[in-house]
Design brief:
Order of helices and strands: HHHHHHHEHEHH
Structural class: mainly alpha
Shape: globular
Distance between the termini: 38 Å
Oligomer: single chain
Strand order of the largest sheet: 1-2
Length: 209
């Protein structure tokens, strides 16, 4: 099991990274995404969104703006995690305003990367996620929602327990080292893909899709 490998000091992700190009690394490490998929790994914010998803999905008046704002909330969450981990900062204030009550970011810190390649990947992904926030806010215009309160620290412990990375009573710090960052990123991407696949079916405008 993955948790057993980590306990024994084995780092399958790191080993794959050291011997692979980025593309080959992501392909070879796919087993980790598959192992984590389908687990109950939602952060408190994602759990809250899921709890209100049923009436939202059943509503006949759902609009493309509704779907894009759902995606924007997801991108706020992902972008804050990556920009904190890669650069030690939050999203720019101008990229977090909008309709509704604006929240705060709880936790988050810069990772002290030991492997330059992993640091480069983190920075590239952070830039991509920040661009996603800007793109969605541009598409929504005045309809863009403000960034809600986001927990990018303690919420990972619940996700890591559910994924079998740690046991109940232990804590998981996604910013502690290269391995923890990669594990947290895999958890995040599984949640993101699932959310996008579900929400995309409700888009009406092909251009938006």
């Amino acid at each position: 099991m993955l948790s057993e490998n980590l306990a024994e000091g084995k780092n399958p992700v790191l080993d794959a990274l050291k011997s692979s190009s980025r593309r080959r690394f992501l392909t070879r490490s796919g087993f980790m995404a598959a192992a984590l998929a389908g687990t109950a790994m939602l952060t408190p914010e994602a759990a809250e969104a899921a709890s209100t998803a049923t009436p939202f999905i059943k509503a006949s008046h759902i609009t493309d703006s509704d779907v894009l704002n759902f995606a924007l909330n997801l991108e706020y969450l992902e972008a804050e995690f990556y920009v904190h981990a890669a650069f030690g900062r939050a999203l720019a204030a101008g990229d977090t305003t909008g309709t509704g009550t604006q929240g705060t970011v709880l936790g988050g810190s810069q990772v002290t990367f030991a492997v330059p390649a992993i640091q480069q990947y983190a920075q590239e992904i952070a830039a991509d996620e920040e661009a996603h926030v800007k793109f969605l806010r541009s598409a929504l215009g005045r309809n863009a929602v403000a960034e809600p309160t986001i927990d990018i620290s303690t919420a990972f412990t619940t996700a890591a327990v559910a994924a079998g990375i740690i046991t109940q009573g232990q804590t998981f710090d996604p910013y502690a080292n290269d391995d923890n960052f990669l594990l947290a990123a895999f958890i995040f991407e599984d949640v993101g893909v699932t959310a996008y696949r579900g929400a995309a079916t409700f888009l009406k405008n092909p251009a938006v899709l």
